[in-house]
């Protein structure tokens, strides 16, 4: 699959990479869980010395001669075939992850170099592919940074593979260099990502556009929020998007006037809006949040960056999916107290009054979100009850005709997920 992503049209390559990323999530989460097992080879007392030597030399290839001078290599050598079989699937997950990242970054920089972005409403599917790859790029990197004993895994596998087969494992150096530079821990992984998004790409790019500017183009469009994801999201929030765009462009199955509701039911404007647009808004909010998380410099590099920050902060977005926990309030609080970020902000915006206004916008957005949170949750609870009531009436009336009402089911699932997550998060006191 990965080799196919090097050929074909950009949309086809993006589709392949997105499908591969879903499989990688499952495999890497399995690796993360499996490496918590206390009975793995490198946890054995007899192999403690070998593990220390491998860690000391990492990311260098584990030397057979040095290990032979230590205690325990005989046991490791005698079990090399069995250990290879035990670790192979986990090792290959890391190998595929590194290859996926390289292919994804190459394609994204090619797209950024073209710097041609139609408006979101003109090609929402293509936008979605690009932004989902960007989000997966960030999420997978942070996930790998949380996996314990990953260095031990690839070092033990490389040593046992060479002893069992008689040839060196050629993929070790790529994986080891990646882990030692890009994913040491969450902080270093995040710092590397943000630097990578800011740096100009190398190679034979014509315009050499940095990824942060490309992300800004996708999210903010022409610079004032129009044409990008932010503009569409705000229009949906205000219920101002025309019905033709809502039905035809955002993937709704039928126009509102063509929808056949269960007998005896009528939807008012608010319910109709929920029926059509809530799942799309949920995706857009995720794209904007991860984009701002990876590229906080969007706040002052692009016109409309402050509006993007306000929308994300006021939504109070949190993610606990895919073994990652992201609280955008806490993350942006750290950004606004980072000396390097503030220094760059002051260089980019020499006007001290404007810098102060940006900071005040962030503070006011936080305060608004905290104050509005109870009312917003009550509103979403009511919307969930309304959606479930509609589904219940449909099942009682004509269960065979539930298919045309799939958007309503998707909306109910999205609301139910948020409600369940709220209860889980508030089982313990919220951190100050």
Automatic annotation (TrEMBL):
GO CC term, one of those recorded: SCAR complex
InterPro entries in alphabetical order: Nck-associated_protein-1 (IPR019137)
Alphabetical list of Pfam families matching this protein: Nckap1
GO BP term, pick one: cortical actin cytoskeleton organization
Stated family: Belongs to the HEM-1/HEM-2 family.
Name of the protein this chain belongs to: Uncharacterized protein
Organism: Cryptomonas curvata
